[in-house]
Amino acid sequence: MKTINVYAGQTRSVNDRFWAASGSDELYAMAYSPEGAFLMNRMNKFGSCRYVRNHYTLSRYDTEGIRCGGDVYSEDENGNPVYDFAWINGVYRKFVENGIKPIVELDFLPDALSGISGDITQEGTGAQLLNHFYPNNWEKWTALLKAFVRNLADEFGLEEIRTWYFEVWNEPDNWPIDSWPMFFKLYDVFVDAVTSVDAKLRVGGPGAFRQHFMYAFLDHVVNGINYVTGETGSRVDFLSFHIYGMSGEWLPEWPLVMPTVQRFTQELLWVKRMIDRYPTLEGVELMLNEWGVVSNYERCVADHPPLELRNSEYSALFMMKLVDSILELREKYDFNITMLLYWGFAGEDFFGKMFNGNRCLTTKGNICKPIQTAHELLSKLGDRLVKTDMVPGADEGTIAAADGNSVQALVYYFNECDMARAYPNREYELCFCDLDDGDYMLEVCTIDDTHNNTFRLWQRLGCPENPTDEQLALIHAEQNLTADTVETVTVTGGVWRCSVELTSVSLKLVTLRKDR
Predict the structure, then answer these.
(1) N or C: which end of the chain has fewer CB within 10 A?
(2) N- to C-terminal Cα distance for the chain?
(3) What's the CA gap between 160 and 42, in Å, rounded?
């Protein structure tokens, strides 16, 4: 049995809840839906999401006949701009009312500014890549950006929108290399437009997923000639990058190939090396503002059974290991990673799909997937991260925290690379140190294949596509983080010990709360 000492009196860092963020291609539409309202209300209740991100803020995007884009710009018969910000303002109002702040992507091009004929509703590559190109009229584009941001200042107030992030675009890596200079111009125009409204607004990007593009962007903002000012360099308050555990046409190879947390840590360290080449970027935030176990957004389990990973406890444990790894990177390398944004929201619920294997936090019937349960469990951690003496291993780790009257230790056991093999259970002794003597309420919450797992319960119920009211009530009860242990314990001498047993894909959150 391995002993893990948890030092409640030794602060490791502030718990900034960098993992509490989410996004989706159709998030704007979901904000107006009952399914989106359910999830946002739940996020507000549990504090499981502080920031959200969405594409198509300025452009048209419809899917299945549903408006999903801001569509804020048109022109009259004389070619004069016509702005309509009411719909997108309503979206942001719903976010703010639920304690959530937007990352405002100022993309993509409205129809009248794209200069491209045909369908411009898709984000993808190939022929649709042309829709990512620079505007056909820079003056009108600049005026639109300024008008939109001024509108946000008027609608929400400068103090509020100074707490938001303004991001230039999404994944401009898809632009052909010979068009990259025009993207850099797009960035400089974006920074000038946003900061002309208020110099304290936070601007950045590029929302990239390829390292070579990221390097070119960094070189522009540090050494390039600014397309607006003519001076060297461009302002950047934060950098944004995307990583998935797996991307591309990997699915036929499963289970020979599995997603790994190591991919995230390796790529993040490469990005750090790039940033370190530019001393003027020291202290600039780095957001991982899209992540997931796998990409392949539209694919589902009906066609690709391995995507069950996105339904099950696998995603929940993957997230815990990733959060733990990022904490280690931040601490050991002084690496300013400030956000981990899960790309998925209420899509399956919104489109009426039951555990479809998409990148979503909820599924049909206002049901939280285990990945949302994991976000809610992390929200139980206190305001101070505290020290432990456990060194994270290849398949185990601990995250500990404390607040005024409680201390928590989250212990996980998870080998994401070898799911086909049955590993023996492990037992740990948790030793809580630096406690005040007295009575505490002990609470233990578990996530595994039988605890706080809506997907596995749904499977045990026979995988009903349309659950009965009785079945739905059982599933809803399963998503509410029920503790498997609740009892009173007494601490003497400032130390309390307990043992926890974990299966090979599981975690436990052990909380001691002192009555005052």
Answers:
(1) C
(2) 33
(3) 22
Nearest alpha carbon to residue 282 among 327, 328, 333:
333
So what's the pLDDT on residue 367?
98
Number of H helices, E strands in the chain: 14, 23
| DSSP structure class, residue 224 | S
Q: How far apart are alpha carbons 472 and 467 in whole angstroms?
A: 6
Nearest Cα residue to 362 out of 496, 498, 492, 476: 476
Q: For a pLDDT cut of 90, what percent of the chain falls above it?
A: 85
Burial of 492 (0-12, 13-18, 19+ CB in 10 A): exposed
CA-nearest of 239, 301, 230, 318 to 271 is: 239
pLDDT score of 306 = 86
27 pLDDT higher than 70: yes
Do the Cβ atoms of 21 and 54 come closer than 8 Å? no
Q: What does the CA dihedral 187, 190, 192, 196 come to, rounded to 10 degrees?
A: -160
Q: Strand order in 438-447's β-sheet?
A: 485-491, 438-447, 505-514, 406-414, 396-402, 384-388, 2-14, 426-433, 496-502
Residue 207 φ/ψ region, left for φ over 0, alpha for ψ in the -120 to 50 degree band, beta for the rest: left
pLDDT at 125 over 50: no
Task: Report the alpha-carbon angle 103-107-113, nearest 5.
Answer: 155
- SS3 of 447-489: the string is ECCCCCCHHHHHHHCCCCCCCCHHHHHHHHHHCCCCCCEEEEE
Q: Which sign does the torsion angle of CA 208, 214, 220, 222 carry? A: positive
**Enclosing H/E stretch for 112:** helix 111-114
Task: Please say whether the beta carbons of 250 and 258 come within 8 A.
Answer: no
Residue 337 is predicted with a pLDDT of 96
**Segment among 289-293, 496-500, 512-516 with least mean pLDDT:** 512-516
pLDDT > 70 in the chain, percent:
94
pLDDT of 256: 67
Q: State whether residue 371 is helix, strand or coil.
A: helix
Give the helix ranges, DSSP H, for 122-233.
Answer: 138-156, 158-161, 180-197, 211-223
Strand intervals (E) in 15-148: 21-23, 51-54, 62-63, 66-67, 73-75, 81-83, 101-105
Q: What average pLDDT does this structure show over 443-467? A: 98
Q: Where are the beta strands (DSSP E) in 175-305?
A: 202-208, 238-244, 285-292
Q: Are 343 and 310 in contact (CB under 8 A)?
A: no
Question: Which of the four pLDDT bands, split at 50, 70 and 90, describes residue 432?
Answer: very high
Asked if the model's pLDDT at residue 124 lies above 50, the reply is: no
What are the tens digits of pLDDT across the range 240-254?
999 999 887 666 666
Q: For residues 208 and 158, what is the distance between their CA atoms, to the nearest angstrom?
A: 28
